[in-house]
Structures are given as structure tokens and as C-alpha cells.
Amino acid sequence: MNKYEKNVSSFRLFFNQLSRKKLASLSIIILMLVYLTGIFAPLLAPYDYTETNLLKTQAGPDFENWLGTDRLGRDILSRVIWGIQTTVIVTITGLLTGSLFLGLFLGLLAGYYRKLFDFIVMRSGELVSSFPDILLIILLAATLRPRITQFIYNIEEKFNFSGIISSGVVDYIVIGVALLPLSWFGTMRLIRAQVFQIREVDYVLSAKTSGASTMRIIFKHVLPNVISPLIVTSTFGLGAVALSEVMLSFFGLGVQPPRPSLGAMIADVTGRGGASVSVLTNHPEQLLAPIIVIWIMIFCWNIIGDGLTDILNPRRN
Amino acid sequence: MIKYIFRRILWMPLLLLMVSLIVFGLGTYGPGDPVEVQLGNNYDEKTAQRIRDKMGLNDPFVFQWIRYVKNAVRGDFGESYVFKNRPVISLLLPKLLVSAQLNLIAFLIAISIGTPLGFYAAVHYGSAKDPGVVISTLFFYAMPVFFTAPLMILIFALKLDLVPTSGWGGVFDKRIILPAITVGIPGSAVFVRLVRASMLEVLDSDYVKLARAKGVSEIMVLWKHAFRNAMLPVITIIGFTLAGLFGGSLIVEIIFGIPGVGRISLDSVYSRDYPIIMAVVLIGSTALVIANLIIDFIYTLVDPRIEMQ
């Protein structure tokens, strides 16, 4: 059988198979809804995330505030919706920078060029994975924030405009940079292994002999073959990225108040130093709202990831 | 084989040297001034200068780094900035012990729940029991620790009043129960998935088919032929879990108020007491790298089919 033909159609085949997996399809739909909620947060949220009502703090759910209010009288539903937006931004940046850009790019190059380049990339990956990841993320986020803030400040000074720092973009950059070591190596190794296999395949060899440039071979012949595995590792990775952001914000090292994050909301209730007993007993909904959203997202990501692995694992077919 | 071991062992210190460079760089160029952390905001320049000289902060970065590594190899990670005149290592050791105890119990919970469940799911592959187990594990696996920890406190400590909400009293104290279960639940999900996947692969192998064809009883097939071989990949995870005793329980330690490594690392980040977090990361990395090496060797010893390259 002609391998190239098989691989072109495999992408469509892949989606056909995926749509047959009910739970995975359901998870995709749920995740899409969650993402849409995050993207359209400004339209959906009934209140702004900073809007306080000090006459109505720690209130239970009612018609005005569907999920009640927190200790500053901020609407919890709105803060959850805005918090989802943070998760959306962080996961998408994580996907673009970590998995897609670094992972795919380095994987393709390392797999294709091998030798020294491969050696350097693999060894730096080994270096990154010999850190305890949670601690590395915390250390990075804590030490890099002032540097990044200063850097952006200098840019603002130089080009004479302002608004980047006040808009909270720095938080996202800090989180993105801190999570970078976490996400790229897995994708990179997988892509690299795929490229190792594909570069020996006949059609790649024939493309080479007929004088196709290296870039053409990588992007035209190799890239289409690694898309499916890329999707799988990325989905698995996204759950970890989302959870890491929640964790960083929980520790106060990620998204800074007043900007909302699901992690920061949990920290507000549990008091970071330990569970706050009175809020927990009297207003569990303040904790449940952000947590259930996170739970659903991680659950869906795992289900999708499982479904994808099942489909792409040649042994199961 | 010997060449491979030799190369790996030679590579290890180099790797750890790079780790220390990154850690030391982050600690040195991170925010905060060690002198300011020690003296507070109002200090006179003379004292500051003297301390800087004494600590060698005026030396070039490379010299500082070499000195740090030299001392670290001998187990001396410097002195804490905040807890005056306390060597980092004497601060850390008791915390390491606490975290290790908590994680060991959690690990035992995880493996004793996870392995039988994974085995069960794999044996019932194809029936509704398998996806049932898999999906319910995913359900628990996806549960963030932020969720289980406060929920446990809410139910077992506040409503049922069975155990105290927080604190630490060692392995034989009842206060360890909730945090250990909280760490253990997601861990057991990892084992379920791993054991299941590994069992499925082994059950599909030729030697299991041969054993069945020979008429070996099903129990013997599952136990002797399948399960023992299926546990091989599990060794990897055991190694990593044991090496990951540092980071894994971070959030749980914070929520349950346990004086472990997680607590002190985070506090040191907040107070910019970098020698502590630097030491934690370095010790953690060393443990990971060594565990990695040992796992590889065990692997080849247990399974002669794997060849070292």
C-alpha cells in the first residue's frame, strides 16, 4: 500500500473514529462550551470582576447573584466566568508557545538533523526534566516576575505608551514562561521519534533524491504525519498547564488580584495558610464554584486524551 | 553494558552541575537583596558592605557559583537569610522527614488501591466493568487536590468530627489520615491506568496465549505469566513517585498545615530566603536523577530483553 495515501486520509479517519467515541465527543463539546464562556466573558458575566458590594458580603445564592458573593461582595458567578477566561488565555498561550512552537519545531529539527542539534535539544530536555517540576515552576514564577515587569516597563518607557502592565498581561507572560519547561519536552520527544521513522520512508527518500529542499521535506512530507500524535500530547499537556496556572495563582505567584483566577478564588476561601473553617462550613459554594469548573475541565481533557490515545494506538485497531 | 553504566554515571554530575547553575542563577538574580532580607529596610551602608564581603556577594558570579557547588557537595547549602545563623540543611532535614513520611503512606495507599483495580479492569477488558473502572478513576484523578483537601476537612473533620482539621503528629497519629488519602487518591488513579495498560499489553502477548493453549489454569496465567511481567513498567512509576516525595504534597501540606518541605519552600519564596528553596530544588533534582539511574538498572536486571544503548 502506498503510505502517503494512507496518511493523508488518516486525518479524516481519525476524526471519524473520534466522533464514534461518545464520551470523548461529549467532553469536547463541554470543553468548547467552557472555552466559549471564557472567550465571551465580557458579554456573559453579569458583573465586572472588580465590582464590590460591601452591603452584601458573603451572601448565599439568590436571583441577583446566582452563586452568591464573596467576602468583598463580589459576584462569584462573574468571577468564575472571568477566571475561566484566565484559564483559556493561559492554556492557549501554553499550547502555542510550549507544545506547538517549541515542541513541534524542535522535534522536527532534532529528528531531521540529528547529530549535534539533536544532542543539544535532548540534553537540555533531560536537564529540564531532572527538576522537580512544581518547585521549578514556583521558583521561575517567583524570580522572573520582577525582571519581566521591568522589561515591559522599559519598553513602555522607550516607546512612550502605557497600559501593558496595568492590563495584567505581565501575569500571563510570567505564567507562560514559568510553564514553558513543563510543556515542550514531551511533545518534542514524541515528534522527534515520529520524524526518525518517517525520514527513512520511501517517499521522503525519493523527495530527497528528486532535489526537494530540506524545509520542503520537513513541512510538506514530515509535518502532516506528525499532526495526530501532536494533538494527543497537546491535549494531555493542556490539562497540566491549566492546573499549574491554578496552582500558581493559588500560591499568589500567578495572576495577581484583582484579576480573577480560579486558583486565586480557591486561595481566597481556603486562606492559603490552611482551610478557613468558618467559610467552609457556612459558604461551601464559594469553594465549590471554582473547583467544579476546574474538575470538569481536567476530567474532559483526560477523557479526550484517553480517547485519542485509543484511536491512535495501532495495537488497538 | 558496563560502558553504558560508565557513561551514565559520568553524565550525572554534569547534569547536576547544570541544574545547580540554573538554580543558583535564579536565586542570585531573583528579586530581593540578601542583605536587605537579613537587615530589614533600614540598614547602614557600612554594615551592609561588611555582610556582603563576608558572604562573598561582591565576587564574580562564577566564583560564587563554584563556591556554592563545592559546599553543596559536602551537604552545606549555606545559611538561611531569615532564620539567622541556621544552616539550611539543619532547617530542611526535619521537614524532609515529615514530607517523606506523608508521601510514603500516601504511596502505600495509592499502590494498594491502584494495582488491584488496574488488574481487575484489564482482566475484564471488553466487558462494561473495564470502562467503568477507567472512567471512575479518571473522575478521581481529575479531582484537584484543592477540591479533595477542603472537602475531606469539611466532611471528616468538621461534620463527622472524626479527626482534627490540621496539624502533624507523625505516621501513627490520626492527623495523617486525611492528607495521606488526599495525596493517595490521584496517585492510585495513576497506578490503575498504568497497571491496566501494562496488563492488557501482556495479556495480548504470545507467551500468555501459549500458556492458555497449554491449558495452564487461568489463575496461574494471570498471576505468574501476566501480572509479574506487567508490573515491570510500574517499577518506573514507583521510582519516580518515591523521588517526587518533595513536590507532590505541596498543596496538601499547605491546606492541612503540615510542616513539610512544601510549606518551607513556599515560605522561603515569599520571604525571598532563597538558600532554602535553592537547596530544596537541588536535593529534589539529585533524588530524581539518581532514581532515574537506578530504575534503568533495575529494568535491565529484571528484563534481560531490554538492551542498553
Description:
The complex is a heterodimer of chains A (317) and B (309). By secondary structure, chain A is mostly helical. Chain A has a single domain, classed as Orthogonal Bundle (MetI-like fold), CATH 1.10.3720. Chain A contains twelve helices and no strands. Chain A has helices at residues 3-20, 22-39, 41-44, 76-113, 115-129, 133-159, 169-198, 202-209, 214-250, 262-270, 277-282, 284-312. The longest helix of chain A is centred in the N-terminal third of the chain and has 38 residues, at 76-113. Chain A is globular, with a radius of gyration of 23 Å. Chain B is mainly α and 309 residues long. Chain B contains 13 helices and no strands. In chain B, 38% of the residues are buried. Classes of the chains: A mainly alpha (317), B mainly alpha (309). The interface between A and B is large, with 51 and 52 residues.
Number of helices of chain A: 12
Q: How is the CATH topology of the largest domain in chain B named?
A: MetI-like fold
Largest sheet of chain B at a glance?
A: none
Structural class of chain B, please? mainly alpha
Give the number of domains of chain A.
Answer: 1
Radius of gyration of chain B: 24 Å
H/E element sequence of chain B: HHHHHHHHHHHHH
Q: What share of the residues of chain A lie within helices?
A: over 70%
**What general form of chain A does the structure show?**
globular
Mean residue pLDDT of chain A: 80
Outline of chain B, from the CA principal axes?
flat
- Low-pLDDT stretches of chain B are none
Largest sheet of chain A: none
